[in-house]
Amino acid sequence: MWPNDEFLKRDNLEITRNFNRCIDLHKENFTTILWTDVSIKNWMQSHYPQFISTLFDAYPFQIQRVDAARYFILYHHGGVYMDMDIGCFKTKDIGDLVTYMEASGKQVALPQTDPVGLSNDVMFAKKNSQFFKKAIDALPTKNRWFGIHYLTVLYSTGSLYLSLLYFNQKPLERKQIAIIPPRLYSKRGTRYFLHFHGSTWHGKDQWIVRNWFAFLIILFFILLLLLWVRLRPIIRRKQSKLK
Which of 149, 138, 132 is nearest to 62 (CA)? Predict the structure, then answer.
């Protein structure tokens, strides 16, 4: 998924080379579809018009619409979803993961992040899977503000939304979901996916979340300074009265 397909005209871009490489490596077994902002909106209007005004257009950020569309498309069509900053290895066939998922009777496969949680940048699913049906049904209940842009996206549609949905599944429901471990998802040498620099939707407020301890220390000293500025005149007045 990408805002438009203009990047395909520029062969010198890493994203273009990465996209074309994945197509070439898997063209015999997979049909690749590039979803743009326009095609996503048109597809939603054709297949799920009831969600356009109540959910899709109600999101304050475009990345939320993109996240939500992933779940709708995977539920409706099934298949493999990969972010544009996820690449393919010549020596690794993602069809192996599809084969394992089907052989083990799983409906969905999701990658585990290190040390905890799941990611939504790579997802495998059978058509009409129970998990992604729950994912789209629960979206309206999470469409609210969570304090800052970064957390709002994570909790309402992003990887944290998907992780919490998984952890709230019943044991029998979890058995329908295959977890792709870090050694196959992200560990160098054994992983199936290349990971390029992405996170284009992240705002500056992600620094607060990723560096929360440092932020709390800075906030503590700022509050201490403000308290000192506030109390200093009172302390001086008391000292002058004692003299």
Answer: 149
